[in-house]
Amino acid sequence: MLNERNPIPVVEAIKQVTKYCKKGETEYIELTEARSRVLAEDLIADHDVPSFDRSPYDGYALRSEDTTEVMKNTPKILSVVGHIGAGSVYHKKLEKNQAVRIMTGAPIPDGADAIIMLEDTTTFEESGKSFVSIRKQLQHQQNISFKGEDVKNGTALVNKGTVINPGIIALLATFGYAQVPVAKKPVIGVIATGSELLEIDQPLEPGKIRNSNAYMMIGQLQRAGAIPQYYGALTDNLEESLEKISEVMKEVDFLITTGGVSVGDFDLLPEIYQELGADVLFNKVAMRPGSVTTVAAVNDTLLFGLSGNPSACYVGFELFTRPIIDSFLAKETIGIQQEQATLAVDFSKVNPFDRFIRGRYEFKNGQLVTEPAGKDKSNMVHSLAMANCLIQLPGGTEGYKQGDKVTIHLLGE
Ligand SMILES: Nc1nc2c(c(=O)[nH]1)N[C@H]1C(S)=C(S)[C@@H](COP(=O)(O)OP(=O)(O)OC[C@H]3O[C@@H](n4cnc5c(N)ncnc54)[C@H](O)[C@@H]3O)O[C@H]1N2
Ligand code: MOO
Ligand SMILES: [Mg+2]
């Protein structure tokens, strides 16, 4: 048990946490439920797409050699021997000077090697028979959508670990995935702590506040692709809290608590970790907000002791819990996307610790620019609502100036 608090660098803290990465199992779900889930197996084509040569136009299928004598003012007349739409097949072989009227998507009849568009033809009837007048010469294989031109059998299409988007859903449907193998979502318990907390349906009372962190984290967990399991708020009572946390740990893959990790008289988490015999990975990180963020492990179950201050809780989640979710889902990329952006305003507050400011980014004249989303104190909630990124300002002895290049962490909204 760590009693002293030695701040460790953020990257070191992330490294400590990711040692406990565990990969979840695979489950099969309906294709209609697959969007935003993580593909658990490589998607490899098991047939050509299209699986037959087909017409890209509404027109006539013909033998290009029958069009060699077509001149500008002397069209060629072909006998129309069939009529097929997409989904139908012309079963005979096309003979000399024959054509089949064909619609987009229909298979090229045997013997035909080109398609002429309807616009380049005139159809007429004579003695109860159909004919088409061809006004254009065609080349061998002209206007054919070839078997396998889109995807060749055996092509690796999408890697496992990729988040499924509507385009991938189109591929999965093309290859007949009625059930899709996806990474099972981790179940993550959420417990709020603090005798001051009211539930969201309770009226305010003197000295009390509504529990916003638990609901915020439920949203963050859903955004990250996990299943939140909310176990309510605990009052500052050691025995009851210890009992509840020990019980909940058995039901979840990971557990997050918010509040009670600092040095206050009612901050019970340090003692709870001790009672649990937990291995405390760190209890101070060289960052603002969230310096008191604590992560402990009981066997392979991580306990994320996030701060009670809303902004510190939010940042602690994004930096430390999100990578664990990504690795449980076996995502190709772990952690939220980082980019370089230009600071749009001065940020003069100096801090020896790295700062993660709730920010907004946008493109201006092709450049990514960013600025704080609102007031920056860790006990504030308002700026969280406006944030679409975290602006990382490395600790030091000087502030930052408008125009400085900074790293931003995109929250994925
Ligand atoms: N003497 C010191 N005091 C404090 C230190 C320190 O190093 N020395 N650290 C400060 C920092 S930094 C932070 S951050 C907070 C962390 O406090 P805890 O994680 O122990 O959280 P609590 O004390 O339980 O609550 C802090 C604050 O947040 C409010 N809170 C708690 N839970 C919720 C919730 N579910 N929804 C909304 N708001 C919540 C709570 O009412 C308090 O106002 O400690 C500083 N102090
Ligand atoms: O560093 Mo505390 O965790 O936000 O203000
Ligand atoms: Mg406290």
From TrEMBL:
The keyword Ribosomal protein does not apply. Its EC number is 2.10.1.1. Keywords: Magnesium, Metal-binding, Molybdenum, Molybdenum cofactor biosynthesis, Transferase. The keyword Magnesium applies. Residues 189-327 form the MoaB/Mog domain. Its cofactor is Mg(2+). Pathway: Cofactor biosynthesis; molybdopterin biosynthesis. It catalyses: adenylyl-molybdopterin + molybdate = Mo-molybdopterin + AMP + H(+). SUPFAM superfamilies: MoeA C-terminal domain-like, MoeA N-terminal region -like, Molybdenum cofactor biosynthesis proteins. GO terms for cellular component: cytosol. GO terms for molecular function: metal ion binding; molybdopterin molybdotransferase activity. InterPro entries: MoaB/Mog-like_dom_sf, MoaB/Mog_dom, MoeA-like, MoeA_C_domain_IV, MoeA_C_domain_IV_sf, MoeA_linker/N, MoeA_linker/N_sf. GO terms for biological process: Mo-molybdopterin cofactor biosynthetic process. It is an enzyme of class 2 (transferase). Catalyzes the insertion of molybdate into adenylated molybdopterin with the concomitant release of AMP. Belongs to the MoeA family. This is Molybdopterin molybdenumtransferase. It comes from Gracilibacillus orientalis.
